[in-house]
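Input record (one chain):
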Amino acid sequence: MANEELNERTEEATPKRREKERDRGHIAKSQDFTSSLVLSCGLGLLFVMGPSMLQKIQDIIHDSLTSLNPKQIPDDFVSIMTPYFNSYISIVALFFALLCIGAIIILRFQTGALFAKEVMKPNFKKLSPAAAFKALIDRINFFKPRQMVEFLKSLIKTTIVAVVGVNVIVKRKADLFALLGADPATGFSVIGSVAFELLASICVLLIIIGIIDKKYQDWEYNKSIKMTKQEVKDEFKNIEGDPKIKGKIRSFQMKIMQQKMMAKVKEADVVVVNPTHYAVALMYDPLKVPAPVVLAKGVDFVAFKIREIAKNNGIPIVENKPLARSLYKLVEIDGIIPQELYVAVAEILQYVYKQKGK
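The corresponding structure, as predicted from the sequence alone:
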C-alpha cells in the first residue's frame, strides 16, 4: 500500500505544502555543499589573516625566549601558561569569529530565513528507549537507499581527497626533498605552500561534489513532498472554501443583486417580454445616456416579478419575442443596447411615448 500511495504522488507540491514543510524543518539542504563552502571560507580567511597571525605567534615565542627571567617564573604550570593562552586566544578569536559569521551567511544562503515552529515543540516520544533504538538501527542500516547513497558519497569523497593529496605531494616532492638540511624558516614556508595548495585543490573538488549533492537533495526533496491529486483538491478546497458554502454565498449575492435590480424596474420606460419566459426593462434618458439602458432582465420567475412590478407601477409592457431574447442575451444589466438593436428599440419607445402623449 505504501508503494502504491507513493506512485500516486504525481503532483508537484503547492506553495502551501512547501510552507508547511518548512515550518516542520523539512527543507532541501546539502551538508556537503555547506561544508565545502565553510572550508573554502576558512581557507580564504587563513590566506588573508595567516601571515599576520603567524607573525604575532612568532613575536610571542621570540619575546618569551629572549626576555624570560627564571627568577620570575611562577611555581605552578597554570600560572605559566595562562598569559600565553590568553595571547593565542586573542590572535585566533577574530579568525574564528569571522569564520562563524561566514558559516551563518552560507547556511542562510542555502536555507533562507527558516524558523521551524514544529521543531521547537518538545517531542518526548523521541526520548523513549524504543525510539532511540529505532533511530540507531536506522542509522546503521546500510541497506536503506538513503544510507547507501550517503555511504557511497563518503567513499567517493575519501577517494578523491586521497587522490588529490597524493597528486599534490608527488607534484611537489622535489620541493619537499629539498627541505633536507634547510633552515626552519624555509621549511615552514615550503610546507605551508604545499599544505595550502593541497587544501585549495580539495576545496575546489568538494565544492563541485557539494553542488552535485545540492542538486540531488533538491530533487529528492521535491520528490518526497509530491502530492496526490486528491491532496491537491483537498488543499484547494481549504484555500478557496467548501463548494457548498461558496454556492450559498453566491446564491445570497445573487439574491441581493436581484433585489437591487428589481428596485430599478420602477424607473423603466418600458418592459419588453416574450411573452412569459423573458422580460427586459428599458430606460432612456437622452440627457444622461446616449442610448437606451437595460435596467433589469430575467427569465421565468424573475421575468414574472419584473412584469408584476411594471404592472403595479403603470409601466408599459410590450411583447416582442425576438427583441426580448436579443436584449437578454446581448446586454448586461446597466448596459447600453448595441447599435444593431437601435431601430427595434426606437420603434417600441416611439410607440410607448405616443401612448403616453409624449
